[in-house]
Specification:
- 2 copies of one chain form a homodimer.
- Chain A has one domain: Tetracycline Repressor, domain 2 (Orthogonal Bundle).
- The first copy, chain A, contains 9 helices and no strands.
- The first copy, chain A, has helices spanning about 10-20, 30-35, 50-75, 80-95, 95-105, 110-115, 115-130, 135-155, 170-185.
- The first copy, chain A, is elongated.
- At the A-B interface, helix 8 and helix 9 of A face helix 8 and helix 9 of B.
- The first copy, chain A, binds a DNA duplex through helix 2.
Chain lengths: ~190, ~190
DNA sequence: TGTGTTTGCCTAATAGCTTTAGGCAAATTA
DNA sequence: TAATTTGCCTAAAGCTATTAGGCAAACACA
């Protein structure tokens, strides 16, 4: 009957943990209430709706991920930076599958524009500084890297690369070799056949 | 009161249409029952559960997509094949966003192994035949392409590339140029710095 | 320290989705 | 046409989401 000390903050954190433990789809207002041993309706003072909760968890994950990426990038450049940056995404996906899934939640444009997603793009550009691509090629490269990381983490988490050789580890390393080579050798034109 | 003629087949097809119209998350046994003007419980003779329904829609989409990809690949090779293949995925995502999302549903290993997902991998290998990569590099490349297409379609559908320049169209074309160049010039070793 | 206001968590209630059990009538088969 | 199968229905229970309104703990201040 006492007060538990609910906070939007605490709910979001607990939601992120729940996501990692049980999957992001399992994150529900009810499940969270259960976790705090509190009635469901009580959460509605701190969170507008189920959708709001999920969005907040997504934003939280995006922030956390951007912080990690920024740290990883500090003092690195070139392939070293590329690898460190990429590893942040992959490691996050493996250590925090739920948060990682949350970070992939579809956000409405305004929310997305105000999210740390923007920082992610900037950080990717920072990585590319080491490769010296002119605009608009740099933007294309940003999108390529985003697609690769997003896709790879997603597929790996879905189990796409398990139970088959070669190791996902090896593919990841070779993929980064390939991307590094590609960025150092970015084609200027539809390379003639 | 007459019989409507429900079938697992028809339910799956209608589910796929519903997904495209309203989003895959909106596909529910109830919504489908409404669409057939039938009581919810009636669907349970044709579908085991909500999860079963979604899985069947996912499998349907994977088949359809593999068929389209196979068609597109016929008679093509090299960059021509790569482009046609890639375009199938992107176009499918834009014409059938719901089915496309369904195709990205996490399947349990056995289901995935028996799905058309296997054909997708084979078709990707067919594309790579034009680039003559030795194993295990070919597998790495299959995974890279899978990641890029998966990620790009997903991000584009989420609106990631709208409202910003350059055009998503242009990025897609340049990305394929880049991937073509990369595959023709696949690095053999951690290219020394 | 007492008083008043805020506010956190509760009860109650409505509504939608999922799933199971059991029934009746239409379609199929003999 | 009679027997059997089977398709869709009613009924019911359980879970999630959400809103409205209430009471008491925490806080703010005199």
């Amino acid at each position: 009957m006492g007060r538990v000390g609910l906070t939007t903050e605490r709910l979001v954190r607990a939601g992120a943990e729940l996501a990692d433990e049980a999957g992001f789809e399992q994150v529900t207002v009810s499940a969270l209430a259960r976790r705090f041993d509190v009635k469901v309706a009580s959460l509605y003072s701190h969170v507008q709706s189920s959708q709001d909760l999920k969005t907040r968890i997504a934003l939280f994950a995006l922030e956390e991920l951007a912080d990690l990426a920024a740290d990883a990038l500090a003092g690195r450049s070139g392939k070293d930076a590329l690898t460190a940056f990429a590893d942040v995404y992959r490691d996050y996906g493996r250590e925090h599958p739920g948060r990682s899934a949350a970070a992939r939640l579809r956000l409405d444009p305004e929310t997305a524009a105000a999210s740390a997603g923007v920082r992610h793009a900037q950080l990717t550009r920072a990585v590319l500084r080491g490769y010296d691509l002119p605009e608009p090629e740099q933007t294309h490269a940003v999108r390529l890297l985003g697609s690769v990381f997003h896709g790879y983490v997603s597929l790996e988490l879905a189990g796409g690369f398990s139970h088959s050789l070669p190791d996902s580890e090896e593919t990841w390393a070779r993929m980064l070799d390939a991307l590094d080579a590609l960025l150092r050798n970015w084609p200027t034109r539809p390379t003639g056949a």
